[in-house]
Amino acid sequence: MTHVPAADALYDIPGPRTRKRHVVYGIVSTALILALVGWIIYLLFDTEQFTSVKWTPFEYKGIQELLLRGLGNTLKAFGCAAVLSLALGAVLAVGRLSEHRVLRWSATLLVEFFRAMPVLVMIFFIFVALKVQPLPALVAGLTLYNGSVLAEVFRTGINSVERGQREAAYALGMRKTQVMTHVLAPQAVRAMMPTIISQLVVALKDTSLGYLITYEEFLHAGKLIASNLDYDLPFIPVVMVISPIYIGMCMLLSWFATWVAKRQRRNPKTEAVDVAPAEPGTLLPGVQ
After folding, report:
1. Beta-carbon count within 10 A of 43 CB
2. Among 29, 117, 145, 234, whose Cα sits 20 to 30 Å from the Cα of 4?
3. Do the Cβ atoms of 85 and 143 come closer than 8 Å?
4. What backbone phi and psi angles, to 5 degrees, belong to 87?
């Protein structure tokens, strides 16, 4: 039996009986998942969701253009909301980290208010009370909510950097802005990146709320197809078309985050510098 050093184990190494139990658990879990998937597929066939009459509408050029236009509007709303949320989050994070009490309290009040406010309520308020057009109302609501959440992510990431890094930078005579941009932020980005991408995925999915204010995004297009065609209301086929695209966009966003993280690890500005070991006979100046 292979011996694993205790220093290399993060937890107690399972024995033979425990490993057998884990194998049984894995087999049972896999069987249950396969049974659930098989049951769902059976229900889809039993309710005639794969009949040609329900899938024929997707061959029409007008419906394809409607879906593509809705997808384009979704990406447009997400792109605007993502950029503005990152910018707003950075501004609010700087405010919360400020040494000026009034600025810090004002930023804290805004962050806590918009984090606590449901995003749908903000979108409806901007659309109905302020009489803003659907796209700006959707983008504004997503920006206020996600920007306030990202502000806390940025603040926490900056504060997670070791205090010695900040003190060493100040000891070298760097100003606060230089310390933030050249020392703290580059080190905090790698720790913040997974959370930032997770919040952007939330923003991407929340663009579907636009159909409630008549914004012609992807979900709105699917709803029009399902409700306005005389093909026995193909809700399930529409969901089966739209859902994989949403999942694919979220996976693409996660892949982009992984790619950015790998590039940061290869960046010489963030890599550790190898220091040559001291050799015998090396003396400091003035030392005999």
Report:
1. 11
2. 29
3. yes
4. -65, -45
| Angle, helix 235-266 to helix 218-228, in steps of 10 degrees | 170
Residue where the block lists tokens 């065609």: 229
DSSP symbol at 11:
S
Quote helix, strand, coil % in the chain, to nearest 5: 75, 0, 25
Q: Max alpha carbon distance in the chain (Å)?
A: 97
H/E run at residue 44: helix 16-46
Using only C-alpha atoms, the chain has a radius of gyration, in whole angstroms, of: 27
**Other CB atoms within 10 A of residue 153 CB:** 20
Q: Rounded to an integer, what distance in angstroms lies between the CA atom of residue 95 and that of residue 49?
A: 54
Instruction: Name every residue whose Cβ is closer than 8 Å to that of residue 177 and which is 6 or more positions away in sequence.
Output: none
Length of the chain: 288
Find, among 43, 37, 209, 8, the residue nearest to 126 by Cα: 209
Instruction: Report pTM.
Output: 0.75
Cα–Cα distance for residue pair 178/173, rounded to 1 Å: 10
Residues 71 and 244: their CA atoms lie apart, in Å, by 13
Residue 128: DSSP 8-state: I
pLDDT tens column, 146-170: 999 999 998 888 887 777 777 787 7
Q: From CA 230, how far away is CA 126, in angstroms rounded?
A: 35
Res. 67: pLDDT tops 80 = yes
